[in-house]
Design goal:
Blueprint: E1 2-3, H1 11-20, H2 31-40, E2 44-47, E3 52-57, E4 60-65, H3 75-87, E5 91-92
Parallel strand pairs: 1-5
Antiparallel strand pairs: 2-3, 3-4
Helix pairs in contact: 1-2
């Protein structure tokens, strides 16, 4: 599924999406930015046990852990988010 700037995806969402796939992999992306991106893409989020959050997008399901005590995703979590977005076939056009 492809999205462009004229849909629900704002310039901030686009910036977050690009940051997720940047090399070298970043460790400064806030979880709240990821959550708002996922919602804008049409994902369904539900609370799990503890810091877990379940995400469904385009028929793909994943479980992530909200980072704590830091608010940013670590590199391992960001790699998992990359994989999830790829599996959900998310591409954001220019």
């Amino acid at each position: 599924m492809s999205y462009n700037d004229t849909m629900k995806v704002s310039s901030k969402h686009l910036k977050t999406f690009r940051a997720v796939f940047e090399e070298p992999i970043r460790s400064d992306i806030a979880w709240t930015d990821i959550e708002t991106l996922l919602v804008a893409l049409g994902a369904t989020l539900s609370e799990g046990h503890g810091s877990r959050i379940r995400v469904w997008l385009n028929g793909v399901r994943a479980v992530f852990h909200r980072p704590h005590p830091r608010k940013e995703l670590d590199k391992g979590a960001l790699k998992s988010m990359r994989r999830f977005l790829k599996e959900a076939q998310i591409e954001i056009g220019e």
